[in-house]
Fold this protein.
Amino acid sequence: MARETSTASDDGAGSDAEPTLEGAFAPDGVDLTAIRWMLERTPTERLQAAQDLIDAVWALRGVEQT
């Protein structure tokens, strides 16, 4: 499960701030941290992340790619 942490630059809290899941999930259960992470990437980085995932799935299935 993804976790968001507060940092001093975010809310002025010290380094001893507890990690929080507040704002991490939409009311319907969608993990917003994954969406935010992807939106922070460039289109090229998004495509590379998707390709890396596809490559990993194929490798786990034992499929050779051409």
Observations:
- Helices lie at 8-11, 32-39, 43-61.
